[in-house]
Amino acid sequence: xxxxxxxxxxxxxxxxxxxxxxxxxxxxxxxxxxxxxxxxxxxxxxxxxxxxxxxxxxxxxxxxxxxxxxxxxxxxxxxxxxxxxxxxxxxxxxxxxxxxxxxxxxxxxxxxxxxxxxxxxxxxxxxxxxxxxxxxxxxxxxxxxxxxxxxxxxxxxxxxxxxxxxxxxxxxxxxxxxxxxxxxxxxxxxxxxxxxxxxxxxxxxxxxxxxxxxxxxxxxxxxxxxxxxxxxxxxxxxxxxxxxxxxxxxxxxxxxxxxxxxxxxxxxxxxxxxxxxxxxxxxxxxxxxxxxxxxxxxxxxxx
Length: 303
Ligand code: CP
Ligand code: NVA
Description:
CATH superfamily of the largest domain: Aspartate/ornithine carbamoyltransferase
CATH class of the largest domain: Alpha Beta
Bound molecules: phosphoric acid mono(formamide)ester, norvaline
Order of helices and strands: HEHEHEHEHEHEEHEHHEHH
Structural class: alpha/beta
Number of strands: 9
Number of helices: 11
CATH architecture of the largest domain: 3-Layer(aba) Sandwich
C-alpha cells in the first residue's frame, strides 16, 4: 500500500505513468466516455481548512470513476472534539477505501497514515500541496512538453507550494528560481531536500523571472497564518508578479497560480487574466490528475 503525503513519495517513472494516464482520463472525460474503474469504492475527504478546488475536483472525480465520497470537516465530526487522529484513522479506514486529508501540520497526516488501512492523500498541509504540483506539471506538459531541464520562477512565500515545487524539481530534473521576502525563505530541511542543487535563491523577484519557462506564485498569507496578515502585507509588497516580470521571462513563458488569487497583491490582474496565464486549465487539471492518482493508489498501473 502506498500513500501520497508529499511529492517525493513517487518516483519519476511513476509520474511519467500518472501524466500519461491523466491525459487519457481527460480525453475520455471530454468525449463523455465512461471511465468507471473505481465502482463501489469510497473516498473519505477530511477538511480541516477551507477549499473549493480540492473538494470539487476530488468529489466530482471520484463520482466520475464510479465511486462515492464521504465529506467530513473538523466542525461537523468528532475531529473537532479532540478524538485522537490515530483513532479517527483506524475507524475511517475500516469503512472507506481511500482517504484525502487537508490539515495543518504534516505530522498530523503522517500520524493518520501510520494508522490507516487504506491509502492516504495529502490535500494540502502547512508544508506541502503535492496534488496541486501534480496538476501544475501535467498542465505544463500539455502546453509545452517535458519540464525536464526547464526553469520555474517561484515568486512569493516559502510555503507549502514552494516546498512542493522544490521536491518536484529535485525529482523531475528542472530548476526552481526562488525569490521570497526576507524572513519568508524556503527551508531546505522542511522541504525535505537532501541538497540544494535543483534550486537557486534570488533576493530580487525580477532576477528570479529572468529566462524562466514558467512563472508561478501564491497568496501572501496561507491558511492558518492569518494572524501574520498585516506583517506579510508589508513584507510582500514587491513580490507581485507583474508584466515586467513576465517580460523578463522566456518569450513563451507560462503563468500559473494554484488559486485562490488576490489580484493586485501577489499578481497583477493583467498577468493572471492575460495570454500567458493557464490558471483555468491548471484548476481543471486537478480533477484529471487526481483521478489518475486515486486509480493508481487503488489499482496500480492499468494497461
Ligand atoms: N488550489 C487549491 O487547493 O484550491 P482550494 O483551496 O480551493 O482547494
Ligand atoms: N498556500 C496556500 C494554498 C491554497 C490552495 C494555502 O496554504 O493557503
